[in-house]
Amino acid sequence: MEILVAFLLILLPPMACKDHTVTCRVKDPHPPLQDYQQSGDFFIGGIVSQSIIISNFIPFTEVPPQTLHEELLVVTKNYQHILTLAFAIKEINENPQLLPNITLGFRIYDSYFTAKGTYHATLLLIFTPWKHLPNYKCDIQDNLIAVIGGLDPLTSLHMATVLDIYKIPQLIYSPAPVMNDKTPGLSFYQMAPQEATQYAGILSLLLHFKWIWIGILTTNDEYGDRFVQTVFPLFSQSGICFAFIERSHTQGIVTEINSMLTQGAKIHDKIIDGKANAVVAYGESFSVILLRWFSYLSEQQHVTNKEKGIVWILTAQMELTSITHQRTWSIDMIHGALSFSIHSKDPSGFQHYVENRKPLNAKGDGFILDFWQQAFGCIFANRVTERLGGDFCTAEEKLKSLPGPFFETRMIGHSYSIYNAVYAVAYALQTMFSSRLPYRAMGDERGMNLWNLQFWQFHHFLRRVSFNNSAGDQVSFDQNGELVAGFDIFNWIFSSNQSFHRVKVGQVDPQGLLGNVFSLNESAITWHSWFNQAKPHSVCSESCRPGFSKKVKEGDPFCCYDCIPCPEGKISVQHDMNDCSKCSDVSYPSKNQDSCVPRLASFLSFKEPLGVALALFALFSSLITALALATFLKHRSTPIVKANNRGLTYTLLVSLLLCFLCSLLFIGQPQKVTCLLRQTAFGIIFSVAVSCVLAKTTTVVLAFMATRPGSSMRNWVGKSLANSIVLPCSFIQAGICFVWLVTSPPFPDVDIHSVREELILECNEGSLTFFYCVLGYMGFLAIISFSVAFLARKLPDSFNEAKFITFSMLVFCSVWLSFIPTYLSSKGKYMVAVEIFSILASSAGLLGCIFAPKFYIIVLRPELNNREQIIRRKA
After folding, report:
1. What is this structure's pTM?
2. Class level of CATH domain 24-54+66-193+349-357+366-377+413-476
3. Distance of alpha carbon 544 from alpha carbon 566, whole angstroms
4. How distant, in Å, are the alpha carbons of 58, 60, 70, 255 from that of 64?
5. Half-sphere CA count of 244, side-chain side, radius 13 A
6. Three-class secondary structure of residue 409 per DSSP
7. Does the pLDDT at position 228 exceed 70?
8. Which part of the chain has CATH 1.20.1070.10?
9. Residue 135: which pLDDT band, with cuts at 50, 70 and 90?
């Protein structure tokens, strides 16, 4: 600021002012080209950005001409900002309840999109025109209460550096300027919502459509850098990657136009060649001119939907504007764009006020003639020297007939901020006036004289202002002087005749009910034709479907990846999973590895065919065994029963009966009791049966040896021999089972590993060592029985059991030898079925081989059941 003041003081002739009543007259060498003024008791200053002065570039390679050709270029869309301020002042002055007996006026100047024009306009607002002298109170405008402006942050910053010296309230309708060491604290009120709210809305929009591969187009200045530095970590944390970040090397709209032909084509080619279909554009209001240039280039290069489709996401500062040179340019490329805009509504009577605006009824409006000429492409007769071509203006042209890029009669976001800013000043002034009424009752003329208003006093009331405007919206500031408001989301729709309208499709409301900050009506969006009415998508890699996981490509952002199938035993149930997961123990992966299928409980049940068949066979065998036992008991006095030790026969038959019945313990859902009894009962009972067979065989051998003269073996033949074999052999097995049950008993368990689709309900043996000890001990007894019977098979006797026992033990050993590999190779209920089958087969082998011949003689050949047949010997 000190540099600016020194520079101005050098240009102005030296003079002194004794006090504020002294008139200081200095002619401004650069009077404003355009202004709009209306008198009042208090006036509000306004600095707008509408016109651009373009001069020829001077290379200094030759003597420059005496006069430089300058062209005035008007951004016609921004004329609504001027009309809005004038309309709001008109409404307030016509409202007798707001500021009775006080009228508001305004003074509006153009910044010309330059720092020089902004500083010049600001000084004109503070001091009486043609009489301004910085740092001196010479005819200062005491009835200036606030200044509204500017359109972009840099203009607002230039204004603030001057206004802050005099503590004049500044209400800006652009994002907050970047603060630095040169501007430690500036007094301004931001009529645009917080930028953080807009960033959160853009993020929600991208995530809603799953656009995770985007491009960024911004200006190459501190505001563009601030945008990138803010959204880059914010978006990245939510899984969004950046295909490119392009900056247009501009420092204002004049440079923008001059550099469009060189930079625009390069940036356009990068965007078209990129894979991102969603591009977020951040910039000032005039940045849309660059997008218009992109659209023009796309039309010239015949970019079709087969080559590239782009959804533009525009920030609130960017309004669709066009300059005269772009009147016939294509706007097809930005058709279907989604734009964030400051929340706005149409105040009652605004459209009527705008549509009736004519050069003839716009008294004092120094902007309208240039606007009218460039908006309608005509010239006024008295301005023929500035003619650049076109018909003469009739001044009866209709503003509502202009295409949307040139002018809109509906209030746009920036204009709505200006409208609220004017009302905020008016309500603050009313509050200040009301607070001084008590002084009037006490006769204090100082309290009554509002013209003694000090700028710094007005801040207190402006900071606390809160009201409902005529459109029904509440207007208030937070503790940081920022407007508490949200953003609207519009869909830009273009027609072939250059007509334009926007459709509201959503909003970002930081005060939404139940936390609904972001809302979107997707069905109301009209997409560009190159998307074939389908919702566009913007991703670096296609989504990985369930059953696959993402593998990031080395050297690429995390949004670029390959899809690889889940490894065996793992699943992914959602799209784009970073890793596959395992199913729980009660489920297993589906065939496509995209879901977990519940496992079915599996056990050998009495309700399934296999279980029923084994149970029936066991019961039938038990019945046969019981029948044989009953038959032997009935014929217990016959020679054939008596000859083979009736006690061992009965014991063997009872043990076989129990063997058949114990197989039923293996069928059905495993329980604690059945698991304890299964193997132990089977082991003990079978050991008793095999011991009986061993005792029978041993008895036969000793009986023949006892028949020799002088043999001492006669003392061993009898019941004592059988008991000495059966009881010890059985007790040894019982001891093994007892130790098993005490140390590591079997228990119900679930096997989740053997069969993929099933939960196998089984009995865990507790200790496999004891299990195989039980089987091994039975095998040991069987081998001994087989060996003894094999040696005694040729002893001469019609009823010699040795050969039958030999055959039965051969069957027994064959069954259990084949059991071991079959058992180990089986899983689930089939493993149990193998053991049941082995029990039944071996038991049936003993029953059939030993007792079938005897049962045959007793029942069918009773004539052979006599003593002569028993003692008869073979030749």
Report:
1. 0.70
2. alpha beta
3. 11
4. 7, 7, 14, 21
5. 19
6. coil
7. yes
8. 609-747+765-871
9. low
pLDDT exceeds cutoff 60 at 443? no
pLDDT for the residue numbered 172:
92
Quick one: tokens of 660?
A: 């058949």
pLDDT of 873: 42
Query: Which of 693-717 are b and which e, b meaning 16 or more Cβ less than 10 Å from the residue's Cβ?
Result: bbbbbbbbbbbbeeeeeeeeeeebb
Backbone angles phi, psi at 758, to 5 degrees: -130, 150
Confidence of residue 452 (pLDDT cuts 50, 70, 90): low
**Per-residue pLDDT at 304 exceeds 50:** no
| pLDDT tens sequence across 621-675 | 999 999 988 988 888 888 777 766 788 888 889 999 999 999 899 898 889 998 8
- For CATH 3.40.50.2300, the residue range(s) in the chain are 24-54+66-193+349-357+366-377+413-476, 195-342+484-531
d(CA 373, CA 390): 9
Q: Which of 485, 174, 490 is nearest to 317 (CA)?
A: 174
Partners of 245 in the beta sheet? 216
609-747+765-871 is classed CATH 1.20.1070.10: yes
Which two tokens mark 773? 């000890």
User: Looking at the predicted structure, is the pLDDT value of residue 89 above 90?
Assistant: yes
Does the bond joining 150 to the residue before it have cis omega, within 30 degrees of 0?
yes
Strand-pair partners of 550: 563
Instruction: Output the CA angle 756-757-760, nearest 5 degrees.
Output: 85
335, 492 in Cβ contact below 8 A?
yes
**Which contiguous run of DSSP H or E holds residue 375?**
helix 368-376
Distance CA 573, CA 547 (A): 7
Q: Give CATH for domain 195-342+484-531.
A: 3.40.50.2300
Rounded to an integer, what is the distance from CA 439 to the centroid of its chain? 62
Distance CA 767, CA 680 (A): 12
- Give yes or no for a contact between 588 and 757, defined as CB atoms under 8 angstroms apart: yes
Statement: residue 385 has pLDDT above 60 = no
Secondary structure of 694-758 as H, E, C letters: HHHHHHHHHHHHHCCCCCHHHHCCCHHHHHHHHHHHHHHHHHHHHHHHHHCCCEEEEECCCCCCE
The pair phi, psi for residue 342, each rounded to 5°, is -60, 130
